[in-house]
Amino acid sequence: MRDNVQGNVIDNRISETVDKRYCKMKRAFDVVLSAMLLVVLFVPMAIVALIIVIDNPGASPIYVQDRVGLDGRTFRLYKFRSMVADAEKQLDSLLTQNEMNGPAFKMKNDPRITRFGRIIRKACIDELPQLLNILKGDMSFVGPRPPLPREVAQYNEYQMQRLSVIPGLTCYWQVQTDRNSCSFDEWLELDLKYIKERSVKTDLIIFFKTFKTILGMEGI
């Protein structure tokens, strides 16, 4: 883990105590499944990386970005590159077209997304390298999506509660059919709902609903 964005550990404002057995089972599930998937998907992931190199010459197929995780600590998140190489530099010019309220940035027809990038986003393939983050313990399969440091810098105390659990690859927001029309406040409430309800049963429900989202090509 890297530096703490806020300079100290963030208090968990949600008071319920989560069973330690659940936490151990969740971590065991994360380690075993992420390791298995990395082995099984190695060749397909290598092919995706090659296509990205061909589609976007000169740019690394793996995009590495700082994200904020448990208790405000930052970590390096891995994704398949779905945007042009200078996407971060172009962001400032697109902020006025942000379709999400609050600190998050969402734009349905983001011009920075490449041709192949749009395909892998639709199928959620761009998220596969985060299996490494799960294996390392930065993330879990299920939990609130990890925000960017610049987003967290705008959080108020209530919003900081999103950082009271390990972030995940999928969450309640991720399996909403209309998630791209959700406001940031609605997204936040879904994350807090998960934090309050988290259990083996809740994780499995979200995990399997995610497959429906993937099969429906509901990414982006």
Describe how the helices and strands are arranged.
Layout: H1 20-40, H2 42-55, E1 62-68, E2 74-80, H3 87-90, H4 115-122, H5 130-136, E3 140-142, H6 149-152, E4 168-170, H7 184-197, H8 200-215
Parallel strand pairs: 3-4
Antiparallel strand pairs: 1-2
Helix pairs in contact: 1-5
Give the key terms:
8 helices; two-stranded antiparallel ribbon
Describe it for me?
The protein has helices at 20-40, 42-55, 87-90, 115-122, 130-136, 149-152, 184-197, 200-215; strands spanning 62-68, 74-80, 140-142, 168-170. The protein is mainly α and 220 residues long. It has 8 helices and 4 strands, in the order ααββαααβαβαα. It has one domain (20-215). A two-stranded antiparallel sheet has the order 1-2. 40% of the residues lie in helices and 9% in strands.
Quick summary:
By secondary structure, the chain is mainly α. Helix content is 40%, strand content 9%. It has a two-stranded antiparallel sheet with strand order 1-2.
What class would the helix/strand composition place it in?
mainly alpha
Using only CA atoms, what is the Rg? 17 Å
Number of separate helices: 8
| Count of strand segments | 4
Oligomer: single chain
Taken together, the total number of domains comes to 1
Strand order of the largest sheet: 1-2
